[in-house]
Amino acid sequence: MTDNTADTPAPAARNRPDGLFNRFIKATEMDTRLLGMIGALALIWVGFHLYGQLVNGFGAFLTPRNLWNLSVQTASIGIMATGMVLVIVTRHIDLSIGSVLGFCAMIMGVTQVYILPQLIGLGHPLLWILAICSGLLVGTMVGALHGFLIAYGKIPAFIVTLGGLLVWRGAAFLVARGETISPVDPTFALLGGGPYGAIGATGSWIIGAIGCAAVLGMMWLGRKRRRGFGFAMRPVWAETFLAIAGCGAVIGAVLLVNAYYWPKGIVKRHVAETGITVPEGGLFISHGFAIPVLILVAVAILMTILMSRTRFGRYVYAIGGNPEAAELAGINTRWMTVKIFALTGFLTGLSAVVASARLGSATNSLGTLDELYVIAAAVIGGTSLAGGIGTIYGAVLGAFVMQSLQTGMVLIGFDAAIQQVVVGSVLVFAVFLDILYRRNSK
Amino acid sequence: MTQTQTPLVELRDISISFGGIRAVDHVSLDLYPGEVVGLLGHNGAGKSTLIKILSGAYQRDGGEILIDGEKAEIASPRDARDYNIETIYQTLALADNLDAPSNLFLGRELTNSIGFVDDARMEAETRKIMARLNPNFKKLKEPVSALSGGQRQSVAIARAVYFNARILIMDEPTAALGVHETKMVADLIQELKKQGLGIFLISHDTREMMELCDRVSVMKNGQLVGTERVEDVTEDDILSMIIMGKKPEPAAAH
Ligand SMILES: Nc1ncnc2c1ncn2[C@@H]1O[C@H](COP(=O)(O)OP(=O)(O)OP(=O)(O)O)[C@@H](O)[C@H]1O
Ligand SMILES: [Mg+2]
């Protein structure tokens, strides 16, 4: 290669010859880590699909049905992983959330099956809302208690939440002496997904339209702000690419969830119940986005705003980067710790809603080992255990990776033992890749 | 010249111990508007500890702090800020994972009308103040861990200067700086002094201190050896105070 880049008059040429890919990354300002994670996810999906196709003669992974189910199964872990990011970024850990989830689920179960029906009557329209509130409240309080012990009692988070892991699992048992509590309120059950717990084709298109509008609106606002301050702007082609990619992803997701139709049995029952006429060629009813997935998306968006646009989020990162500096900058780091654990507890309560609604009942073993999957999701998503680094989208993608591995292995018929071996190895390998990535990007 | 005014800061009989060690032992100091008071002493003499009591990082065991002649309760760095006390810590106290604007505004982020942090405005403000303090500073979007020691120092200085301090504490502000940057800090101190700020300056460079300060105080083993006007003493007097821990003989002064 001749070394004449320096005298090239083209304005795009820098003093260092950039490859096409690097130029593309620089112009779009895309996060290479994000691209890497999406690439890894795509690899896992295609890999499982091809394996199924070649070995079992049927590729079951890249089907609307499987991907829809995958999204629903990811919701519970994904919601909690967004909270775990804050905990790990501030150099703490939370080992208790699986047990707290079980405890919240039991509280909600007892509230909606035993307590509220006596107070306000079975099938009361407010019943499911009050049940959810009880779970969210309990989750928040438990989290706040943990945070308080860590911040003001100066007990390491590892110990407090290890204790919590045992305490709340035991407490979940004690709530109803180990009974399984069912059935949950029918409206409550919708939050767990399933054919009725999805918003259908029209609703999904509306969500899709809002999503596209949000993508375009944010890009337009960003451009306006940059111009206002005279900062460098992305070239138009890069903006166009991002707009198409963003809206394309949203529309693709809508098409996917709408391509998964209700099972025949449920359609038949639906026809019998409503008495609608079945058109020629059969009735196809789209699932559309599942409600738990929409909850996850909403949580992810709100948490991203919290972490990147508010003082609270800024302080979380500052504490993780240098707790002493944060304290000297006037940040009340102890109170922040209480708030962070309370928020994680709240999200665990929300997760308990999704998990027990999906199951249709509350069992005291619900959420067992979830803490490990949640921590793994956050860490695979690039959250550094040394503190200070981590993103919400990373954790959600991490949850998708974990769930994809598990679903994929079930689909191709690996047994539970092999699943554990693979998931554990992937966790270690992902963190190793992350370390390599960070070293190289320095 | 300034002795008729009320002092900006009066530290009276300040003491603090860590375990058995008396890090600061009954030290009294004062600072007037438009004055630079230097703190000198061996490593471990207690200089940083003393000023950290004023900046709210440590809680004193005994003594009192007066600001503008009135008793001040400084129980946290937040309280110190409310008294317009800004500090450049020896350790710089930066969050390594955040960029320069986020560090500069840490704890005092600029927000827009709906309460979101306004990163663009903070970046623009940082650009402005950096243009004044260190025109070569360009790395506004990178985490400060990617900066050189001197660049990090200029972030810490910018943070203290930006918020219109009345009392400025600088703990070895030039420790990591090159000749050119050190000169810039010296000019800055002169400029801030003219604006009427009171400055506590800590440094091990006696010559620099003789040039920049109006008075110098020497500490040894947590105790105050003495405070002298720089025009009354020589560099050697100061050095012997630091080493011997004794005030110069009045006869020795010219
Ligand atoms: N947080 C702490 N815990 C225990 N001991 C401390 C603490 N901070 C300071 N000390 C002790 O107090 C004494 C004074 O320390 P200080 O940092 O004030 O010294 P200094 O005069 O600033 O020294 P240097 O010139 O090296 O910066 C030292 O003996 C030190 O070990
Ligand atoms: Mg010191």
UniProtKB/TrEMBL annotation, chain A:
- What does the UniProt entry say about where the protein is found? Cell membrane
Superkingdom to which the source organism belongs: Bacteria
Q: Which organism is it from?
A: Neptunicoccus cionae
What is this protein identified as? Answer: Xylose transport system permease protein XylH
The function of this protein is: Part of the binding-protein-dependent transport system for D-xylose. Probably responsible for the translocation of the substrate across the membrane.
Alphabetically list the UniProt keywords: Cell inner membrane, Cell membrane, Membrane, Sugar transport, Transmembrane, Transmembrane helix, Transport
**Could you give one GO CC term from the UniProt record?**
plasma membrane
- The principal location of this protein is membrane
TrEMBL record, chain B:
Q: Name one Pfam family in it.
A: ABC_tran
Molecular function (GO) terms for this protein are:
ATP binding; ATP hydrolysis activity
Name the predominant localization.
membrane
CDD domains assigned: ABC_Carb_Monos_I
Q: The ABC transporter domain covers which part of the protein?
A: 9-246
* PROSITE patterns (alphabetical): ABC_TRANSPORTER_2
Cited InterPro entries: AAA+_ATPase (IPR003593), ABC_carbohydrate_import_ATPase (IPR050107), ABC_transporter-like_ATP-bd (IPR003439), P-loop_NTPase (IPR027417)
Superkingdom of this entry's organism? Bacteria
| Localization, UniProt | Cell membrane
Q: Which SUPFAM superfamilies match?
A: P-loop containing nucleoside triphosphate hydrolases
**GO cellular component terms attached to this protein's record:** plasma membrane
Keywords assigned by UniProt, alphabetized = ATP-binding, Cell membrane, Membrane, Nucleotide-binding, Repeat, Sugar transport, Translocase, Transport
Protein name (Swiss-Prot/TrEMBL): Sugar ABC transporter ATP-binding protein
What organism does this protein naturally occur in? Neptunicoccus cionae
